[in-house]
Amino acid sequence: MVRRALGNDRDGVDTLLxxxxxxxxxxxxxxxxxxxxxxxxxxxVLFDFDGPICRLFAGHSAERIxxxxxxxxxxxxxxxxxTPEERAQPDPHAVLRAVDRRHPGSDLVGELEERxxxxxxxxxxxxxxxxxxxxxIMTWHAMGSRLAVTTNNSPRAVSRYLEGRxxxxxxAPHIYGRTQDLHLLKPNPHCLNRALNAMxxxxxxxxxxxxxxxxxxxxxxxGVAFLGYARNExxxxxxxxxxxxxxxxxxxxxxxxxxxxA
Length: 262
What we know:
Elements: E1 4-5, E2 16-17, H1 20-41, E3 44-47, E4 54-55, H2 62-75, H3 84-87, H4 92-102, H5 107-124, E5 128-129, H6 133-142, E6 146-150, H7 155-165, H8 168-171, E7 175-176, H9 190-199, E8 206-210, H10 213-222, E9 225-229, H11 233-242, E10 247-248, H12 252-261
Parallel strand pairs: 3-6, 3-8, 6-7, 8-9, 9-10
Antiparallel strand pairs: 1-2, 4-5
Helix pairs in contact: 1-12, 2-4, 4-5, 5-7, 6-12
C-alpha cells in the first residue's frame, strides 16, 4: 500500500490516501525488484526457444502441422491410433507424444519426429523474433553470463534460427532440444539438467526463462529459478496458475534491469 501524507496541520498520524496511480507505482516497483533479485543471482541463463526467443510458428502454423501429422497417420491406416480429442489437437507435440505413448521408441515415432523436425526447420524462415530478445541475449552474453537453450523443439531448428540472427556464438555449444526419448521432454527437467551439467552450473546460480507451465515445472524439478514470459493474458494466467511468481509480458523490463546492473 502506498501512503501519501495530506499535511501536519494537526497532532497524531497524518491522514493517508491510496490512489490508483500510487498502487500501480508500488506494484511496478515490486515487480522490478523481483526481476532484480532473479537477475542478480543468474550466472547461467536457460532460455526456452519458441516464445522467449521467437515465435517459431508465426508464419507456418503449428495447427496445420498437427493436422498434417494426423492425416499422415490416417494415410497409413492408423487413424484408430489417436482418440478424437488427440486428432483435434492443434499442437504437433501433443500428437507426437500421443503416438509415443502407444509405441514408445518405435520406427513410427522416429519417422513422425523427423517429419516434425523438418516442419520446424521450414518454420524458421518465417519465425518472428520476440521483441527485445536479441539485445537481451547479446547483453547477457557480453556481461559474461553463460547461456543455453533448453527446449522441446528440435536443436537443428534452434541452431538454424540462431545462426540466421547472428546469435549462435552467444549459446554455442549449449543447445539442448528434443531427442528420440520423447518421455524426457519438458516438464521432465532432462534438458535443463543436461545444460547445467555441461556448463558446470549449480541450479542455484541459474535462471530459466520460459512461456509455458511445462517450463516452470521443469525448472522447479531442476531447482532452477524461473522467469515467465507471456505475450498475452491467456499465457500469463496459465503460468501464474502453475505457480510462477514472476511473469513479464515483455522482455523490455528484463533488458532494462540487466543494463542497470552492468
